Amino acid sequence: MRFDILTLFPDMFAGPLTESILAKAREKELINIHLTNIRDYATDKHHITDDTPYGGGGGMVMKVDPVVHAVEDVVGQGAEVPVLLMSPQGRVFNQRIAQELAQHERLVLVCGRYEGVDERVRELVITDEISIGDYVITGGELAAMVIVDAVSRLVPGVLGARWGAEDDSHATGLLEYPHYTRPAEFRGLGIPEVLISGHHANVEKWRRQESLRRTLKRRPDLLETAELSDEDRAFLDSLRNESG
Fold first, then answer.
1. Given the residues 168, 176, 210, 232, the one annotated as active site
2. What is the tens place of the pLDDT at every residue in 160-186?
């Protein structure tokens, strides 16, 4: 899968995208990440990419021409590629959207800055807008990193053959169950006996019930849309009765 990231600050991506799982995925060419400096598409001698807003007001606005020219050059003539603007006005990013984006062979991510981009950028080249939450950060770069990370984990082979993303929190609509590893006892705290029982069916049942228990306690709103079996619903009812 290929990610094209358009930004005014390409150096910001050097650390997060060149370490750990993403670095290994890039080495194996499971994902490819290409950075484009929007400033290279400014035509004046100072490579200015922002200007004061029409109508007055504080802050600066990213100019339409460098961004549009950068997107058109990166995408190529006639290509149909999702072009995502990182914006607090966009769809709030979640696991479902990550899965949706992972179906594409290529994504273009445009990182806004300052007060935002000239509205004509949206009209001319943007196909979707994504927000990583209802708060404001200094630019779209961090949001782009989050999206690349979340989507890359869903690309086959990125997480390796030993495990996948299927059981992660939110992947199934629920929060993930608790994890334990060695030592078996630490400061008087042990681990659930079922996890060392060797009975795989019981382990899976425990994990499912702990996932349900944790979701009910911490994010009960997720249960409204999660896929639940009759057994799941009965277990949740028993938990509610215990606390009720």
1. 168
2. 754 555 555 556 789 999 999 999 999
